[in-house]
Amino acid sequence: MKGAIYYYTGTGNTELACCSIAENINHIDFDLIDITTSKNTNLSKYEVVGFASPTFYMGIPKVFKDFLFSIKEQDKKPAFILNTFGMMQGSYPVFIAKGWGEVNRPNEQQVHDFQSFITDLSSKLGNLKRDGKT
Ligand SMILES: Cc1cc2nc3c(=O)[nH]c(=O)nc-3n(C[C@H](O)[C@H](O)[C@H](O)COP(=O)(O)O)c2cc1C
After folding, report:
1. Residue of the CA atom closest to atom 2 of ligand 1
2. d(C-alpha 40, C-alpha 38), whole Å
3. Residue 53 CB–ligand 1 contact under 6 Å
4. What stretches of 15-76 adopt beta strand conformation (E)?
């Protein structure tokens, strides 16, 4: 099963989280696509798609928002969102914590939450495959 994670990263935290997902999720062979260097917004070859970026100024970075609006509307394609942030997630709907340099680095609970997120995501994607929804 083929997947993509489209990501934006400034200092590498989000990219690191995406690499962790790609390495730890079974069932899916993920392409990691940096939206600043790839112009490929054709999602048709992917059965599941992730979108990942940090919080900037309590919201979605403009470059990532512009990218999201450039994608053609999809019909029932399974998708997930991953957001890293320092202390205040802002308008992102999903809680995935990541440190702000060494100052507010994730504590053990937050790392555990992230690992749980990956395990849960892996299981959900496995169910989609089992149920023939992709
Ligand atoms: C310009 C800028 C604005 C930021 N704004 C916020 C914010 O509003 N809330 C927050 O919790 N973290 C904020 N952060 C911290 C980042 O969201 C956090 O460090 C994130 O993990 C960085 O991801 P990246 O390494 O993939 O760029 C900001 C960082 C930068 C550089």
Report:
1. 56
2. 5
3. no
4. 29-34, 48-54
Choose which CATH entry (3.40.50.360, 3.40.50.1000, 3.50.50.60, 3.40.50.300) describes domain 2-130: 3.40.50.360
Residue among 5, 6, 11, 89 to mutate when testing ligand 1 (max atoms within 8 A of CB): 11
Structure tokens at 106: 């994730």
**pTM passes above 0.85:** no
pLDDT in tens, the chain (134 residues): 899 999 999 999 999 999 999 998 888 999 999 999 998 888 999 999 999 999 999 989 999 989 988 988 888 888 888 889 887 776 654 433 333 334 455 677 877 888 888 888 888 888 887 777 66
Which residue has its alpha carbon closest to ligand 1 atom 30?
A: 56
Give the CA diameter of the chain: 45
Q: Where are the domains of the chain?
A: 2-130
